[in-house]
Every structure is written in structure tokens, then in C-alpha cells.
Write a structure and sequence with these properties.
Length: 200
């Protein structure tokens, strides 16, 4: 059975202890479960190929499905993208595509516990605990896995549903909106007036 940690009403000491527990499991190559904004997710060290593969197996993903990468600081994005464009062959991760796609889906989540982990671990591979094609899981009682396949589960109770994330594609020459979600098109255009919206 996986270790289970309840995150309700923790004082600072217990909160930091829970973060350290998550970091310890991730650094030892385990997959953990924690809450993102609107659903529970699997997390693993993005540079641990076996741990990332375990996420895909747990989800029942088909071949070449790529895990997202969560980061805790926007500054990390510069390092990741530079390594993808300049040193792709040296980048030591495989998120599920055997490094063939040349792109990475990066997200900066907005969840206190998750972000505290990310600031200590660096990039983490992430994917919904829902099976492929199913809706996000807001209640851990709905997770259908063998808990022995997970290192630790961080329980924040029933999560609230919410808007989808806004999805933008950044290439060398253009920034394109793929999906409008919690961040509106008007907000994006206030920062990048030339942002492209060909499919909206």
C-alpha cells in the first residue's frame, strides 16, 4: 500500500515535512499522486525515464503520448527551451515520445503544495490520474490503481472543478493560441498584441 498523507489544516512544520516526503519519494524514482488546480495528477522526476514510463502504464496511454512537464518557477522554462533547441541530443529525458517530437508541454501550476515540491525538485513529469480519455479525477476514491504502484498519495480531499488551462504554442517565429481557458484572449493580447489565433 502507498503511504497516504492528509494535507488538511497542516501547520508550517507539518506542511514542510509533507513536502520533504514528496521530494524524497520523487528522488528515489517513485511515482506520487498530488492535487493540481482541478484534478489529481501523477508526478515523477522528468529526467527518470523509468518513472515517466510508469506514469504512462498507470494511465493506459498509447505509444508516443507525451507527459506534461510542471515547473515551479518561470525561469526554469528558459533553461528547458534552450536545451531543447541547442542541445536536444543531450537532454536526458524521454517524456513518452523517445525525444522525437522536439516539443514539450510545460505548465506552471497554481497549487501551494505542488509548487512547494517543484521548487525543490525542478521539472516533474505530470499526467492526470484519470485513464486516457476520461475526465479529471477530483476525488481520490475514484482512482482505480494498485496502490503498491505508487510511492505516496497526498490527499487534499474533494477538489473543485474549474476552467481548462489556456494553451499556447511557442515556436521560434510565432506565438499561437491553441485553446482559451482560464486566461482570456484579451489578457494574452495585453501582453502579446501580435499573438496568433488561427483556429479560434
Amino acid at each position: 500500500m502507498a503511504e497516504r498523507v492528509l494535507l488538511d489544516n497542516l501547520d508550517d512544520s507539518k506542511f514542510n515535512e509533507a513536502v520533504d516526503t514528496a521530494v524524497r519519494y520523487l528522488k528515489s524514482g517513485e511515482v506520487i499522486i498530488a492535487a493540481a488546480e482541478h484534478g489529481y495528477v501523477y508526478l515523477a522526476d522528468a529526467f527518470d525515464k523509468d518513472a515517466v514510463k510508469a506514469i504512462h502504464i498507470l494511465r493506459g496511454d498509447r505509444t508516443n503520448v507525451v507527459a506534461q512537464v510542471f515547473i515551479g518557477d518561470i525561469k526554469v522554462l528558459t533553461g528547458i527551451t534552450a536545451r531543447l533547441t541547442q542541445e536536444h541530443d543531450k537532454l536526458s529525458w524521454d517524456l513518452g515520445d523517445e525525444r522525437r517530437l522536439g516539443k514539450v508541454n510545460v505548465r506552471l501550476p497554481n497549487r501551494k503544495f505542488l509548487n512547494a515540491i517543484l521548487l525543490k525538485t525542478g521539472p516533474l513529469a505530470a499526467a492526470s490520474v484519470a485513464l486516457t480519455g476520461e475526465s479529471a479525477i477530483l476525488d481520490l476514491t475514484k482512482v482505480s490503481i494498485y496502490e503498491s504502484d505508487i510511492g505516496v498519495i497526498f490527499d487534499e480531499g474533494q477538489l473543485e472543478s474549474g476552467q481548462l488551462s489556456t494553451w499556447i504554442d511557442l515556436s521560434e517565429n510565432e506565438i499561437t493560441v491553441i485553446r482559451v481557458g482560464d486566461i482570456s484572449l484579451e489578457q494574452l493580447r495585453s501582453i502579446v498584441p501580435t499573438i496568433s489565433t488561427p483556429n479560434l
